[in-house]
Structures are given as structure tokens and as C-alpha cells.
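User: I need a structural model of Glycerate kinase from Desulfosporosinus acidiphilus for a docking pre-check later this week. Nothing fancy, just the predicted C-alpha cells so I can convert them on my end. Input:
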Amino acid sequence: MRIVIAPDSFKGCLNAMNVALAMQKGVQRVYPEGKIDLIPMADGGEGTVEAVLSAVNGRKVEVEVKDPLGRSISANYGILENGKTAIIEMAAASGLPLLLPEERNPLITSTQGTGELIRDALDHGVEKILLGIGGSATNDGGAGLAAALGVKLLDDQGKELAPGGAALGNLRKIDTSGIDPRLAKVQIEVACDVQNPLCGPEGASAVYGPQKGANLEDIKILDAALLNFGEQLSELCGTNLLQLPGGGAAGGLGAGLVGFLGAKLRPGSQMILDVANAEEKIREADLVLTGEGKTDFQTAYGKVPVGVAALAQKYHVPVIVISGTVEGLPDLLWEHGVSSCFSVAEGPASLEEAFSKGEEQLEREVWRILTVWKLGTQASAKNIN
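Assistant: Understood. Predicted C-alpha cells for Glycerate kinase:
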């Protein structure tokens, strides 16, 4: 029996590796001789570096960068074992958790620190950068990131813009003559799990601005500023960034990365699956286990369990989703290859209540589910014989 275990983190409770290890213990109680492959997953947000380095060999690099408000902090990213690929989380340098609630202000927060992480990765000689952009505190379209890499964003007086999203309303010229030349030889892939455009009612400012501290007036300012920015960067790069699906991700960073760096946006779970060589492992598996903190209707729109199940579906491998809590049973999950879905919570409960006993509870649930699974497969084999 070969089983692949590829869960996301149970946010606020367990990281992806701890979820995978707890599931593994449950599996081993039922299949002590089974072959188990662990692939801790992430979607590009917090925990992406940890998940990738848990799935493949690599090391962490620590570097001093600027936080969203320009203060010096220590942040880290990963370099994979080949030394040629870096895995970076923007949340490490430009993330919302770095700010106190009263400090959140997307009018002035900047992605400069994320650009500094990229620059340090270039100093280490990488040829490929995998960038997760979840959990941002910013709404500057990647202007701060670009500035850290040598781009100049100028107003009508030829002066460089102040940091933050609001200043983009004064943008009159983008000067890329000083951009780091090493970027031309580096492939950049971005884990992006949203389809929001740069501007408008479904854009970066309107949808994600409030959680970053923006009020209604701020949203109007930020949206107009991103529109100005997007029009000018689109003209410069030759791509209509205003219509780019995912351009509004991370406060417009999705559009900025495509426009400034020629980056490729792709679903985060797919990126992690590729790095971990998951397709080969899943192709040979008899069963796949995945899960997340909360499975609901949003899961069908690019979350980890669906990404894992879609890959398993190619090889007709059954997939069981075991999550902290489950709300409803969306038909879309079955269409994406999910065989069955279970909750660790016993009855209606919050994720915290579901995990009041931590990993032991998850281990026990996996044991229960696979005990029934084993009986079912044995009965099927007997009937066939």
C-alpha cells in the first residue's frame, strides 16, 4: 500500500508538516508496512518556504530588509539543494502580521522588503525564483519592490515617489534603465491563487484594502492610484495589466511582477506540487490524503485539496480530504477528483475547538477513516476473487 500525504496547514493550529506527520501516524496504525510519501503543501501564503523546504532539501537564508513601514527587520527565504532556485514569501518582509492593527495603512506601506529579498537571492546566484505573495500588508502594485531592484518611479518634477500606494497617483514616468541586469536571466514564478483584476469593484483596493487598514475614502484614492500606475506600466511592458487575471493579487503586486519582471502567475498549489516532484509520487500511489483548516465552497477555487485532487485524478488515484472543519459538501469538489471529505471536528465546532487536543485528534480521525477504507478494499478484493 502506497499513500501520499499532501495537506495544507491548518491555519492557526498546525503547520503543514505537523499535519502531515499526524496523518502519517494514523496511516501507520492501519498500514504499518505501507510506503508513505509526505508532501507538506502551501498556497503561496505564510508557510510556503517551510513547506517547500520540508518537501525537498534546501536551506534558509537570513537577511536584513525593510518591513512595510520601512523599519529594519530580519527575514528569511529558502534556497533549494541545487543552489539555483530560491523560494520567497513576500509575507516575510511585507506581510500583514509584521504590523500592529493600528499600524496598518496601505496608503504608505511598501513592498520594498520583498524586492530586497529578491536582490539577495540574485546575490546568491539563483537562476529561478518561486515567489509566494499571500498575506500582504501593501497596495503599491509592487512599486517598492521595483524600486529596490533599480527601477525609478518619478512624479511630474522628476522626483522619486514616496513609498506606498497613494503616491502612485502622482506617477508620471517609469524609468527602468537602472533595473538589476541579472533579472533578465532569472525565471520568476509567482504563486497566485486569486483572479482579481488590478482595479475596480473586484480589484485589489476594493476587495483587500479594508483588511489592510483602508477606509472607503482610502479605497477610492488607492484604486485611482493603481489605475494610473497600471496604465503607465501596461504601456511600458506591452501587456494590458488592467485586464490581467490575478493582477490585483497582493495589492497589485501580481500586475507589478508581470509588468516589471516578466513573471509568470500560477496557482500556488501547482507550484509546490511541481517543486516536490509530486506527480511521480501520486502516479504510483494507491491513495492520497490531503486537507486544510476549513473546507467550504472556496476550496473548489484553487485551494490546496483541489490542486492535489486534480493531479491525482489524472491517474485515477482516490483522494480523501480530512480537514479541521467542513461546511457543506460542494459538488465542485467531486468534479475535481475528491473521493470523500471528512471533518476532524465532532459536530459543529470552530477550528480551535476541533483541535483542542491537537495532532492526536487528527491521528485518530485518520486511523478511523482508513480502518473503514481497508475493510472496504478487502471486501472489494474478496468479491472480485
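Before docking, keep this in mind: The domain at 2-41+277-383 is CATH 3.40.50.10350 (Rossmann fold).
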